[in-house]
Amino acid sequence: MSDMTSGQPYHAKPGESLADIYNIPGIVLFIAGVVGLASTLTTAGSGFTRWVALGATATALCFIASVAVFWLEHERLRRLAQHRVPVQTETPTPE
Predict the structure, then answer these.
(1) How far is residue 71's CA from residue 89's CA, in Å, rounded to a whole number?
(2) Phi and psi (nearest 5°) for 64?
(3) What is the DSSP string of 26-41?
(4) In contact, 76 and 61? CB cutoff 8 Å
(5) Any idea what DSSP says for residue 84?
(6) Cα separation of 92 and 95, whole Å?
(7) What radius of gyration, in Å, describes the C-alpha atoms of the chain?
(8) How does pLDDT run across 22-67, given as a tens digit for each residue?
(9) Global pTM?
(10) Cα distance between residue 94 and residue 88, in whole Å
């Protein structure tokens, strides 16, 4: 949405970034991190201490990966905005 169909280099309206298909991996990784966090806390409360380290590692990796994916998408949009030629709104007058 942000680089082809709209004239805006960034998302003009709140929530528009959720419709951008390039953000889907970051959203999925973030949701996996939340599920992993809930599972790790449940495991720790149940007394399965051997699985807590594995769950905490997987949760941290999911959260770090989701932030990295969001940051890379932000940088891609920023580079697109820098390379975009500004649109002239007024016709130049011959001198």
Answers:
(1) 32
(2) -65, -40
(3) HHHHHHHHHHHHHHHH
(4) no
(5) S
(6) 9
(7) 21
(8) 888 999 999 999 999 999 999 999 988 889 999 999 999 999 999 9
(9) 0.68
(10) 15
